Amino acid sequence: MPIVDGLTSTKMIRSYEKLHTNIYSARAAMNGRVPIIAVSASLLEKSRQDYIDAGFDAWILKPISFLRLKELMAAIVETKIREKCLYEPGQWEKGGWFHIGQKSSMAANTRPSGAPPQSAPSKNAQNAAHSDDPMAGDEQGEVPDEQARLLRAQEMENGKHVHYEADSEPSSRLPSAGGT
Known about the structure:
Layout: H1 6-19, H2 26-31, E1 37-40, H3 48-54, E2 58-61, H4 66-74, H5 79-84, E3 96-97, H6 123-129, E4 142-144, H7 145-157, E5 171-173
């Protein structure tokens, strides 16, 4: 995000909720606050408590499994689905919910970290922020190592075997049409 990162924006939303009451839709009210799902290729399991403290309710890693996203969204209103999607150690790549039941905005740590919301964005990031192109800032055909690992895990889960070749750079190329 070009102006603030996900943690900062979540803290801003939770802070707003602390100051304003009776703002929730019926579905959000069922959760006690607006449900927020963290979406990124770089969410780390070891930082799980930081995400919970900031006020995230769930997470999903890129590349997004839309079947899993559908489950996470259904879990907003279906307790039994949420129970199935609850965090399990070692299953981080699947994405899931951090908690069962209602959470209050008051539980979120909304204090600013003191760090700038975006520190020294690269020229590429600055150009992408001013572009209408949804792929702006991404190098054509390159996939970061962590994203390549998650792609392989998702493909294995779907019964496909895809080979991602590593570059000399810390990234991987998309599989070729002949990849298996």
